[in-house]
Design brief:
Two copies of one chain form a homodimer.
Chain A (H helix, E strand, L loop, with lengths): L1 H11 L5 E3 L2 H8 L8 E4 L4 E4 L13 E4 H7 L6 E4 L6 H8 L3 E4 L2 H7 L3 H26 L5 H15 L1 E2 L4 E4 L20 E5 L1 E3 L2 E2 L2 E5 L6 H15 L8 H13 L11 E3 L6 E4 L13 E4 L2 E3 L3 E3 L2 E4 L5 E2 L12
Parallel strand pairs in A: 1-5, 3-4, 5-6
Antiparallel strand pairs in A: 1-2, 2-3, 7-10, 8-9, 9-12, 10-11, 13-14, 13-15, 15-18, 16-17, 18-19
Helix pairs in contact in A: 6-7, 8-9
Chain lengths: 333, 333
């Protein structure tokens, strides 16, 4: 059971208590996804503090479930050292509950989440199946040349959410908008090339994340650079290899083509309960790839217009690309 | 200009520097809504630190715009006392940048945001117009008795997002699900009464939030209790009155009906850039209502099934209910 593993990891750090606040981590450890403020206290007898609004949802959880008021009023454990998610817990939370205590980061939860088990990989693959259809919907709407970016994004999300969920608001970025990596869909008709489409479905809390660029010549330098960079990045997604090698490989290829300064983000990220799950495929990433990690590799070049390609990979002895059947976009057909 | 007001408020607190991280607050003060990590440093010459991905979006901002790397590497101002949003900044941020400094809460930004100006009220009213149509769409789909909760929620969001934005994922909760205030739409056909529908559109970053309950007898005790509680709550939304009186009035009526223990959340909340904007209409709310605040009043009773009604009010000498034209649901027609 994951909670047991977490308690062991806590003990190895010399801690007897950890407070988990991030909903995704609570879900990962306890199987319960809170809708309001909630705290999972990892200690000898773990307790889950939930809001009144969530108490019905939490009623079948195999843990000691308490009302959150008791946490608020009564959280006074005798522990001097406490683990918290430093990247999630706010300063206000710290001041209210943890002043005068020594605090440590519960980073081992991120480590636990990196390698996906069979159930998790099945959810991610199911999310990819929906994404394949979502990409077709986007393609059809773009080809019609009469829908706005917003309408296309809403059409894709409607499909995802009718069946399961959407991992994030799709990015539909046409013409000059494609030069903005996080462009928010506008009321502009998507009738100018290129069109970047970045989307993902969510199934049982697990996300997919795929990008295609439509209407860009696949013999242009920019396209070739992004494609070659992605291939080079994907090749690095091997168990035993250093995680940072992906970004280095991607950046190396883009540099050869002269586009290094037009690459505005990192090479990719893990996928799971978060759209940006560990590990981050950053320049300064630490750690080694392990079998069963699931990541996306997404180089992009942004000048007057942009090109980005993003695919998902399961790390193994060799990288297993699990999204190449989503073929719409440049280079397809 | 809002930044000037913020600088004055900072000075009144004896501070020469404040770091704003929350996107809604950055947008409120600087007119720029970041899509990635971003920091607005309030000081004599305010600076906005943005990620590479946002630099094109921020290019027309009337502020000194810097790359976020400079913040990360070079944020070492000589200030001993610094203001931050304690309820938003993480412990990690604090440890990375603010250790050994005395920190203060930038709560005055919340205070500034409470009273809405004309532009803001126009956006909220525009969001309400979309919500009126969204509620009709939900009603039509519920009446058809062949759509799942998910399909109805997705249909409403599709409408909102095609035109503007959605404030949050609509709640469609039918039958026993209506007893869960934050129910997540399921794959169950919404063919059993009652059906709680809680939705809001977002226009230019401003949110609406309306709830109706369909298919519940409007002569039942529960309905009468919730309706009377809402009316009592709304009556308290008057300039000069104490904010906490709303929750007291709502709770008082529900108590008379014997439903006090079945009310699982607070009486309402402000609306604006956040769906839960200041002021919170909580039991222990501090402060006085001012003309131009915009709030929702949303009592609910949750037993085997639930009933909730939520309307929006502009605070003035008298409360101005701005959503009563959204008439679908119990008591309508």
């Amino acid at each position: 059971m994951r909670i047991k593993k977490a308690l062991q990891a806590l003990e190895e750090k010399g801690l007897k208590c950890g407070i988990v606040l991030k909903p995704e981590n609570i879900y990962y450890l306890a199987g319960f996804f809170p809708s309001a403020f909630c705290a999972l206290v990892l200690e000898e007898d773990p307790r889950l503090f939930v809001s009144d609004m969530d108490k019905k949802l939490a009623s079948d959880i195999d843990l000691d479930v308490k009302p959150i008021e008791n946490f608020k009023k009564g959280f006074r454990p005798g522990y001097k050292k406490i683990g918290i998610e430093k990247g999630y817990a706010t300063v206000r939370f710290y001041e209210k509950y943890l002043r005068d205590r020594e605090i440590f980061d519960l980073d081992f939860i991120n480590d636990m989440r990196k390698v996906k088990d069979k159930f998790e990989i099945r959810q991610i693959k199911d999310a990819l199946k929906l994404t394949a259809r979502g990409m077709e919907i986007a393609k059809e709407m773009i080809d019609a040349k009469r829908y706005t970016e917003k309408e296309i994004a809403a059409g894709v999300e409607h499909f995802f959410k009718s069946r399961a969920g959407s991992a994030f608001e799709p990015i539909i970025a046409c013409g000059g908008n494609s030069a903005i990596p996080h462009h928010r869909p506008s009321n502009k008709i998507a009738d100018r090339d290129p069109v970047i489409v970045d989307m993902g479905a969510r199934v049982n809390h697990y996300s997919s994340d795929i990008t295609r660029t439509f209407g860009f010549s696949d013999s242009s330098d920019i396209f070739l650079a992004v494609r070659d960079a992605q291939e080079a990045g994907i090749r690095e997604c091997r168990a035993g290899n250093e995680v940072k090698n992906v970004d280095a490989a991607v950046r190396g290829v883009l540099k050869e083509y002269g586009f290094e300064c037009d690459f505005l983000h990192s090479a990719g990220h893990g996928l799971g309960l978060d759209v940006h799950d560990p590990p981050a495929l950053k320049k300064d990433a630490e750690g080694i790839f392990e079998k069963g990690m699931v990541v996306s590799v997404e180089p992009g070049v942004y000048r007057d217009v942009g090109v980005r390609i993003e695919d998902m990979v399961i790390v193994g002895r060799r990288p297993e690309v699990i999204s190449k059947n989503i073929a719409a976009g440049i280079g397809a057909d």
